[in-house]
Amino acid sequence: MSGNVLTNPVLKTVKVKGEDRQICELRVMCSEYKSDGNGGYVQDDTRTFPVQVTIWHEGTAKRVYEVVRVGASVNVIGATYVRPWVNEQSNQAEAGVCMDAEKVTLGLQRVEAVQYRAKAQPDAQRATESAPAAF
Predict the structure, then answer these.
(1) Rounded CA gap, 21 and 13, in Å?
(2) Which is higher by pLDDT, 8 or 123?
(3) Burial class of residue 9, CB neighbours in 10 A (0-12, 13-18, 19+)
(4) Range of the domain at 44
(5) What is the mean pLDDT of the chain?
(6) Shortest CA distance to 28 belongs to which of 44, 48, 11?
(7) Residues in contact with 101: Cβ distance below 8 Å, sequence separation at least 6, in sequence order
(8) Pfam families given for it (predicted)?
């Protein structure tokens, strides 16, 4: 899943098998993709939804908390599930998409390839630059 971060990550301490562990939670806005009919896919802007992401690996959780901010593009790999709850204000049953992340990487929204070439130097200048200095 990939998308843009909706909230700054929150670092929490929870008990896991009797030990304290730091986890990180954040929300990511995702979009579904649909077939374009030519073997490719296009983003379906009408079907966007927030995903509650929980990072259980302590090292990854701390790093995401330090680096990721609102608006960042991220790619998340992990288990996705639907979690139901009751809205306390309306007393209605609701559900949301959640994900237990195994891996989180920053997304590249725009990549530019630039090729650098060394300036050509005259042979005489190149010879003096590479010659050892005289003492």
Answers:
(1) 5
(2) 8
(3) buried
(4) 2-113
(5) 80
(6) 48
(7) 53, 54, 55, 56, 60, 76, 77, 78
(8) SSB
Rounded Cα distance between 76 and 120, Å, is 45
Report residue 42 as tokens. 């296009």
The pLDDT of 104-127, averaged and rounded, is 60
Give the pLDDT score at 132: 46
- CA–CA distance, 107 with 54 (Å, rounded to integer): 18
**pTM strictly above 0.70:** no
Distance, in Å, from the CA atom of 41 to the CA atom of 90, rounded to the nearest integer, reads 38
CATH of the domain at 66: 2.40.50.140
What is the Cα–Cα distance from 90 to 82, expressed in whole angstroms?
20
Q: Is residue 130 situated within a structural domain?
A: no
Domain membership flag for residue 134? no
